[in-house]
Give the backbone structure.
Amino acid sequence: MITLNRVTKETSIKVSVNINGTGNYKISTGVGFFDHMLESFSKHSLIDIEIEAKGDTHIDDHHTVEDVGIVLGQAFAEAIYPVKNIERFGSASIVMDEALVSAHLDISNRPYLHFDISIDGKVGNFDTELVEEFFRAFVLNSRITLHLTEDRGRNKHHIIEAGFKAVAVALRRGLTENSRVTMPSTKGTI
């Protein structure tokens, strides 16, 4: 279990991650919809995640969501690098009623985010633009390459949740242990 803390004038974040877990979670960010997405992310990735976050949500949820992405990404990076004996690449397409969202990732040590999901407005009190902010912070700090695309959908809740689940399943597949893959790169390092 990797545990990291980050304290700023805007947020106080504590994250614990076990990438070889079973999908157990204990998440409290003060942002209800975001908690729901992170719980789903943990469950479907089979990664145990504990998050205790307090932020300036009286202003808005931006700092809390972004900083959770930063610390969660840093914990992932600490847990997965140096890479060895894993599949490295993972893909998943997840349906949720009318929504279909695909995630393709490379545990590459090279951060890159392609985010092609058109969601504007709110789900409850949650600003949907924060989904991209979370994934950008997570990708930059976990140093993975992620392409997240909306194939179809109308309901914002369904689209966002399918996105979190798609990334979770793609990560689960990319992190799958494979003893035959001693180093998943022709360079000899990732």
About this structure: The radius of gyration is 16 Å. The chain is about 35% helix and 30% strand.
